[in-house]
Amino acid sequence: MIIVNLKGRLGNQLFQWAAARYLADASKSEIVLYSGERDRKAGRTPPLMGFPLPTRVAQPKDFRKVFFPFGKFSKQLQQVLRHVRAFKSRQILSLDELEAARRSPCKNYLLNGYFMSSHIADAIRKTLQQDLNLLDFTPSRYPYLDIVDHPRAVALHIRRGDFATGPARQSYGLCSVEYYLRSLQTLEDKIGPVKPVVFSDDISWCEDVLAHVPNVTFFKAPTDGRDFEDMMLMSRCAHQIIANSTYSWWAAYLNKNPEKQVFAPYPWRAAKEHQNQYFLPENWQRVAKYASSVSPSPMLQST
């Protein structure tokens, strides 16, 4: 059994799911998800389970099976041997530990890290495409299907929220308007006029600063908590301009267009690139995320 101790929001959780699938591919273990006792007791399922995944919510007995697989003696051993290193060796915290476990797999592990790397997803791409496939959307999203399915649709994901005003801005930095305009212009230089579709956690702000962009559509997300549907709408656009957000990373990764153009901000964090060199796929284009002295085309001038 592989228990995934879920961390962060949907984008982060998808990397953790990919790591579990990657390990289960070798160990043939069942995968269960854990997002905390409060959620479990309240019957709340993780955002990740909006997808039709072959999994369930982890129960206390699952932890005993992973760390103390000794039947009726497990509860007693859990008290006596709580800090014994041999039992804690089943916990996987890093990509290096994940790779080591995959080379010498056993049946029981606790995944307790972020595992943010495209090479993991690439290794099980077909499996992930089956796992993360929505057959339908809620009716409130139907009006956008023709828009995102247009052959020249490009999704712009603009993350603000805590990136705009909270402590996270110090760690990750906020993508400038110029980053999106430069990326749009580069894409138009390659393929001609496009139809931008803006996705954001602050769509009113986006309407204020990007209303002048030709052919733009602003996605008004329903307030139903089904963020996984919005991600999949984003993935259906022909191209993506992502924020430094794992949420839009996955929207771009799951895009099935063989000729897709993906633009990603550089550096990923406030002042440095992501620590894992495999985080961004090689064929994604890096664009400076901060404003510079280079002005965008007059057609795309920011206000």
Word description of this protein:
This protein has 303 residues and is α/β, with parallel strands linked by helices. It has two domains: 130 residues; 162 residues, Rossmann fold, CATH 3.40.50. The protein has 15 helices and ten strands. A six-stranded parallel beta sheet has the order 7-6-5-8-9-10, sandwiched between helices. It is globular. The termini are far apart. The C terminus is likely disordered.
Summed up, what is this model?
By secondary structure, the protein is of the alpha/beta class. It has helices at residues 10-27, 37-42, 60-67, 74-80, 85-88, 95-103, 118-123, 125-131, 145-148, 161-165, 168-172, 177-191, 203-210, 227-235, 246-253; strands at residues 2-5, 31-34, 91-92, 109-111, 153-158, 195-200, 217-218, 239-241, 262-266, 285-288. The chain folds into 2 domains: 2-131; 139-300, 3-Layer(aba) Sandwich (Rossmann fold).
Written as H for each helix and E for each strand, in order along the chain, the element string is EHEHHHHEHEHHHEHHHEHEHEHEE
| Proportion of beta-strand residues | 5-15%
Number of domains: 2
* Unreliable stretches covering 5 or more consecutive residues: 70-81, 83-87, 293-303
The secondary structure category is alpha/beta
Strand order of the largest sheet: 7-6-5-8-9-10
Which outline best applies? globular
